[in-house]
Amino acid sequence: QVQSKTIRAALVRYNFTTRSLTPRRRKLTWDEVVEHAFLSDFDILWDPTSNVALRDWATQGGRQLMDSFFRIEQAKEEIPWLNIEIWYLAT
Fold first, then answer.
1. Is residue 28 within 8 Å of 11, Cβ to Cβ?
2. Record's superkingdom (predicted)?
3. What are 31-47's pLDDT values in tens digits?
4. Nearest in space to 56 (alpha carbons), one of 66, 42, 41
5. CA 79, CA 87: separation in Å to the nearest integer?
6. Can you give the residue ranges of every domain in the chain?
7. Does residue 29 contact residue 7 with C-beta atoms inside 8 Å?
8. Which residue among 1, 7, 38, 56 is least enclosed by CB atoms within 10 Å?
């Protein structure tokens, strides 16, 4: 929502500014902006030369390793909060 409002505001400013340019630029519509953004997102993500299934992170062992890593990172973030809770329970 916020990004949409920001993009719409930028589009309004752009269309307003194009009136003062020489030579004039054509106005853009919201549909054109959304279409370009939508297509560019897929162009960036799509790589026809790579097989994702062969990546290390796509294997079962790689996924398990990532899961373990992120669980450990989450546990590290929780330790300070647990120390506070332990202090409250002990007093």
1. yes
2. Eukaryota
3. 887 777 665 554 444 55
4. 66
5. 12
6. 1-46, 50-91
7. no
8. 1
